[in-house]
User: Fold these one by one.
Assistant:
Number 1:
Amino acid sequence: MSVVTAPRTRTRRDLLNVFLRVWAVLVYVFLFLPIAVIVAYSFNVGRALIVWDHFGFESFQAAFDSDTSVSAVQTSLIVAAGSALIATVLGSLAGIALARRKGRWTIGFLAFAFLILVTPEIVDAIALLLWYVQIGLFFGPDSPVPALDYGILRLWVGHSLFSAAVVTLIVRARLEGLDESLEEAGADLYATPIRRFFQITLPLMLPAVLAGAMLSFSFSLDNVIISSFVNVAGSTPWPVVVFSSIHSTMRPQVASMSTALLLLTLTALGLVAFVLRKTGQSTEEVATTLTGAG
């Protein structure tokens, strides 16, 4: 009886493995097919994006010759870099505090962090707009620092709120899984807190910090809702320009510039992976870090 059952069990297991592999392929196709379509249509030469005319590179040239597109992309990159820096610094410090200085305040702080993650973005956008109008100062046209672009500052603060919570949880999860013995040994050897941080804690949490920075950069780069509410004339990021163009005929230049931004993001991702490999991490550990899982 067992001789008959074993082949049947093995056959069912093989069929299940085949099904799971096919299902995984279908999920990947579902996820990446829209991106592939945009990349393909970025080479479309015609008046409308959705109507294929013929293959060519004219759309890329037109996109980079457009002052509006180039200015919007520059704004997006400045905002993404600035908000990623703000979110990484604030989130890293908060993650360290949650992992290494636990107390009664920890539960409340985590509750606030999760509240930021689950709050609808439209609510954040409206609240930020009202807050900027009420507070004025650096967030209004009458900023006391003329050299400070208040439109960029609005976007930095707005984009970094959600990202800071993400970085906080990633860094906390990283440090929670690491033993404090090395930091305690540094303290026993009379290393100052600052020296322990830069020579022990920071190298240990660096993968999580880089993952949080990359996620923050990506979140900011495609943020539409908050950007639409808080941006001002002269500081309009690329997603808002694309969103506004849907009310008229979308040009192939939109796909071309989006493809260029995709290549830029992949390049940054590759640089981060290269740095992580230089720190001695395996390929599997690098993939885990870049997905924000550790």
Number 2:
Amino acid sequence: MATRVLNSPGVEIRERDLGLIAPPNVGTNVFICGYSSQGVTDEVLKITTRDELLSIYGVPTNAAERYFYHGIKELLNSPANIYTFRLPYGEGSGSGFGSEYSALAYPVNFVNADAGGVLSAVSTNLDQLSGTYVLGNPVHITLTEDEYNQAQDGSLFNWSS
């Protein structure tokens, strides 16, 4: 950190930090958007590693995708939080834009064990007062705009135990 001290008129002393360590950017958030041939659209993702970057957005195949990919890759060398957004592109308004919505549904099972820890019941009856509820692997569901709106107001599904 540089400091500036004025001792008397005409005398100025400046101190400069010649250290090789940059001050950490703690709490800095960086948002970068660009083109990619794979990955989710219309969703902001936090990227933390290069492996994660490759698995989500894949290897770039053209100049626009390289710009996005290498921009993120260089930001991973900093301590900043990196948030990314994939811009869809292609014919018309770009592949990925439309009236489709998606959701992740988690199946739930009820597991009950007796005092000795032995399983006594596994069921989908969720009216139980004591025991353990176990979330299963998520299932990806694609919804139309009408189904999405019905899910929002609670009329899409008939909920039951």
